[in-house]
Queue: 2 jobs
Job 1
Amino acid sequence: MAFTFVLSAAICASLSFMMLWHLYLIASAQTTIEFYENKFYSQEYKLKGEVYMNIYDVGTIRNIKNFFNIGEK
């Protein structure tokens, strides 16, 4: 019983982390690869004294609506 509980808790924790990570990516209109590319570009722009912005990011609420195809009809 204890082993099953620990295994279930570990799986639950890892799936929760994965869900939160993907919700963040949805809210910021990125894929995982784009996240790392944007992170790199952000650092490059910062060295130049500029600010990098993701061209696909239209705001958290609109990103979520676009992802789930909820919008004006």
Note: Residues 21-73 form one domain.
Job 2
Amino acid sequence: MSVEKKIRKNGLVQLSSIGVERAERLVRYNSGDAPVIWGKSKFTQDDYEAWTADRQRQIEETKAAGGNTFSITHRDDGESRLSPTSTNVKIHPGKVYQVLRARIVGHWNYREYKGQTLILDPITGREVYVPRDFVEAV
């Protein structure tokens, strides 16, 4: 009889073999990079302010150079650019993360993503969405 640990709220997880394989595949051609996967974290007010400041800086530099700022403020189809709703967070193999929600549907980039686990990244302090099959209970 095998006792398989389950992913539970307040439990601990790390990347599963599927997650580690995915991380190694993502950096296979970048020899200097450490294997990681990218989790998604919701955009905070600080992220939004940094994004807005960077965009204003780009507009000022383009105006000073005599360029057209339309491509900075609008997409190719003429619609104005919306701010992102998420940011990427590195999830490292071998590190242990606390589970905040074992089963959750993530919402970012104006879409719904089923089959997620919400974990706490101890390095950044962010809540990060990771696909459930990429993590396993410790």
Note: The longest strand covers residues 97-108.
